[in-house]
């Protein structure tokens, strides 16, 4: 038996920003957040999943493959700026370190396509294809801490977080237990007793 799983995440987009850029040198002021820009944009991104299973043994060989591809297309709004928590709390200067924050929120059409194929010696071949469209919210936050060493030299630590309100999943067994309970209840029949 051999299994393969491949998941690809891809995307392309554009953004138009309005506002001034952050100051080129770190502040030593006591501010919590300084707005740098407000933006709007759009992008197309996708999550593509491929699963393959090959069965080899004493009996006939069998192959099973499936793909679950979701493409998100939509628009977003963004806001970004610089924050200085240590300066705001009065705990000294920024030590030449800049901290940047970028937030993004958007609404997307999530188009999902599923394709499955089973083939085996003596079994023939079967195929299944399904499609679905959903509306999804995607939110993102990006934090960057940067130390400038010279006019063209800096060291940065970037952390990105994303939230998807809808992401498809492969379900191999129906886990709706309420449907099982309804089937087990006795059926009432009309008529006189």
Helices, strands, pairings?
Blueprint: E1 2-18, E2 33-55, E3 62-83, H1 85-88, E4 97-120, E5 124-150, E6 153-164, H2 177-184
What's a quick, concise take on this entry?
By secondary structure, the chain is mainly beta. It has two helices and six strands. It is elongated.
Would you give an account of this structure?
There is one protein chain. Strand 2 and strand 3 form a beta hairpin. The chain is mainly beta. It has a 6-stranded antiparallel beta sheet, with no helix packed on it. It has 2 helices and 6 strands; from the N terminus they run E-E-E-H-E-E-E-H.
Which characteristics define this entry?
single chain, mainly beta
Backbone structural class: mainly beta
**Strand composition percent:** over 45%
Helix content percent band: under 10%
Strand order of the largest sheet: 1-2-3-4-5-6
Number of helices: 2
Overall pLDDT score? 82
Strand tally is 6
Q: Please outline the major beta sheet.
A: 6 strands, antiparallel
The Cα radius of gyration reads 27 Å
Low-confidence stretches: 179-193
Q: Topology as H/E string?
A: EEEHEEEH
Large-scale geometry: elongated
